Amino acid sequence: MSTSDPQTQKPEPALVQCLQRAGLLRPDDPVDFQRLVGGVSSDIWKVSTPDRVFCVKRALAQLRVAADWQAPVERNQYEVAWFEIVHQILPDVAPRILYHDPSAMLCAMEYLDPEGHRLWKRELQQGRADPAEAGAVGLRLGRIHAATAGRPEVAARFPRSDIFRAIRLEPYLEAAAARHPALRHQLQSLSHRTDATRIAMIHGDVSPKNILLGPNGPVFLDAECACIGDPAFDIAFCLNHLLLKCLWNPAAREGYFTCFQRMADQYLAQVAWEPPKRLEARAASLLPGLFLGRVDGKSPVEYLQEESQRNRVRRCARRLLITPPSRLHAVLSAWQEELSS
Q1: Contact criterion met (CB below 8 Å) for 41 and 224
Q2: Which of 39, 56, 60, 38 is nearest to 47 (CA)?
């Protein structure tokens, strides 16, 4: 589900046959396939027929990044599970699944028109940092975690945890540990703690590039990393992007700072499955590891091109990893101090 400019191509025949078996395509109907670009983990197509427009997504075994990064294609079925469960909790928060083929590891879902669904990453890039939108993201994410925490029937949909480790913990925290031997203990400890904490259904890739701002509020996309895990990972992963955006568009820093605080506050207000301060402490200590992982992991953010920018991230992350914070505002304050120096 990308909002990038499409490239017109044709998918492999097996994908077309799968959609025909599902009744989404009729053999004699005219159909237009457009590959949507921008993702690294899946092939995504916009499919237009006389009756409907929808998306098809098929997981890739080898991700499109410079590093050797492979991941089980079975993650497609857990993405579908996340969407379906979220629809029962908050129907407007994720695309509706139309069809899933577990043998082909592909799914079809509703297409959300970019005319009515703005990509949050693009809004932030252009300096439109609206605290109300950030707060709505935190609120909805917190409600999803609250509704799935400690529910055995939800956990049964996510029997595997190795996929999350393969596509989140190893490429970010553990890859950064390999680049920074002096921080290896701290980063590996964060990875092991996160891997062992299984409380609620998490998305695993809550990023502005995966959030659309629709007419009814934020919509979450790309839940390929979904599993039963630590909800602190989701909120830390998203807050991390608000910090990094300060180097992308320095003129909008104050807006990003306010968005950070509003998202954190709205999210923590939903935490009822454990003491909020305990979850906040995990998120705050994890955040500098993710911060460093987006510079020296396997999937560095594309918009930090200058070494001076990356060094700012490294300095701030190093200090916070050595002396872990327990409050999210402490992470924000440390980053504000780095940027003012």
Answers
A1: yes
A2: 56
Give buried/exposed letters for 136-173 (b at 16+ CB in 10 A, else e).
Answer: bbbbbbbbbbbbbbeeeebbebbeeeebbbbbbbbbbb
Domains and CATH numbers, the chain: 6-110 (3.30.200.20), 118-340 (3.90.1200.10)
CA 300 to chain centre: 14
Reported pTM: 0.91
Q: Measure the CA–CA gap between 97 and 176, rounded to whole angstroms.
A: 35
DSSP structural state of residue 62? B
Longest dimension (CA), the chain: 65
Distance (Å, rounded) from C-alpha 28 to C-alpha 8?
Answer: 20
Are 338 and 316 a contacting pair, CB within 8 Å?
Answer: yes
What digits encode the pLDDT tens for the residues 63-122? Answer: 444 444 455 667 788 999 999 999 999 999 999 999 998 877 788 999 999 999 999 999
Q: How many CA atoms does the CB half-sphere of 51 hold within 13 Å?
A: 6
101 CB contacts (<8 Å, ≥6 apart)? 18, 22, 107
